[in-house]
């Protein structure tokens, strides 16, 4: 069984998070931003500039030149990705387990298989444990905006969240999350 992957933001992720937190900024504003020192302290500034360039090429940020300075802002797609990254950071925090399992059950029809596969990939990224193909488990409280990502894709009634105090034979799940 795969071990739970702890989310570690890339340099590009950190740039998106900084832009999301600060709004419109120019490149010198990145230093000494707390996100930069949290995630990128070991990276040279040129690497950070390269990450900004890649984000701009992907259409996640927009740069405009004013008075010899480049001012960056998030695009709509960049805002969506920044929201997902913040959620991943929130879920990656070390929480104290309250003894309850959060069980996400979904029933997505075959005709929208692409959305179903996207949902599975997201659950893996967020650190959920696959109990069955459409039943996933997570031990900690979920942030209130967790379902916003899925509501944007019109999953609606196809997702159900159940809280349970126990799951029979949960040894492999506990091992996955490092719980005793």
Question: How many DSSP-defined strands?
Answer: 7
Spatially, the strands of the biggest sheet line up as: 5-6-4-7
Q: Largest sheet, described in full?
A: 4 strands, antiparallel
Radius of gyration: 19 Å
General shape: elongated
Question: Quick one: CATH class of the largest domain?
Answer: Mainly Alpha
Mind sketching the topology for me?
Layout: H1 11-22, E1 25-26, H2 34-39, H3 45-57, E2 61-66, E3 69-74, H4 76-92, E4 101-106, H5 113-126, E5 129-132, E6 135-138, H6 148-151, E7 159-164, H7 171-177
Antiparallel strand pairs: 1-3, 2-3, 4-6, 4-7, 5-6
Pfam families: PaaX_M
GO biological process, one term: DNA-templated transcription
Domain Transcriptional repressor PaaX-like central Cas2-like: 96-171
Brief rundown of the structure:
The chain has 7 helices and 7 strands, in the order H-E-H-H-E-E-H-E-H-E-E-H-E-H. With 180 residues, the protein is of the alpha+beta class. Helix 1 packs across helix 3 and helix 1 crosses helix 4.
Describe this structure in words.
This protein is α+β, with helices and mostly antiparallel strands and 180 residues long. It has 2 domains: 11-92, Arc Repressor Mutant, subunit A (Orthogonal Bundle), CATH 1.10.10.10; 101-177, Alpha-Beta Plaits, CATH 3.30.70. Helix content is 41%, strand content 19%. The protein has 7 helices and 7 strands, in the order αβααββαβαββαβα. It has helices at residues 11-22, 34-39, 45-57, 76-92, 113-126, 148-151, 171-177; strands spanning 25-26, 61-66, 69-74, 101-106, 129-132, 135-138, 159-164. The strands form 2 sheets. Strands 5-6-4-7 form a 4-stranded antiparallel beta sheet, covered by helices on one side. Helix 1 (11-22) crosses helix 3 (45-57) and helix 1 packs across helix 4. It starts with 10 loop residues before the first helix and ends with a helix. 19% of the residues are buried. The model has no long low-confidence stretch (mean pLDDT 79). Residues 96-171 form the Transcriptional repressor PaaX-like central Cas2-like domain. This is Transcriptional repressor PaaX-like central Cas2-like domain-containing protein.
């Amino acid at each position: 069984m795969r071990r739970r992957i702890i989310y570690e933001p890339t340099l590009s992720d950190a740039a998106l998070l900084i832009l999301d937190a600060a709004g419109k900024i120019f490149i010198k504003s990145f230093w000494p931003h707390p996100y930069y020192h949290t995630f990128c302290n070991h990276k040279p500034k040129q690497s950070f500039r390269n990450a900004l360039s890649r984000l701009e090429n992907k259409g996640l940020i927009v740069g405009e030149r004013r008075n010899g300075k480049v001012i960056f802002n998030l695009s709509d797609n960049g805002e969506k990705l920044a929201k997902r990254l913040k959620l991943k950071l929130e879920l990656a925090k070390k929480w104290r387990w309250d003894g309850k399992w959060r069980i996400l059950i979904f029933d997505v029809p075959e005709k929208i298989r692409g959305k179903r596969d996207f949902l599975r990939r997201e659950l893996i990224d967020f650190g959920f444990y696959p109990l069955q193909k459409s039943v996933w488990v997570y031990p900690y409280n979920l942030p209130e905006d967790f379902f916003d990502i899925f509501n944007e894709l019109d999953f609606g009634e196809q997702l159900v969240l159940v809280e349970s105090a126990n799951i029979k034979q949960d040894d492999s799940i506990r091992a996955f999350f490092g719980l005793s």
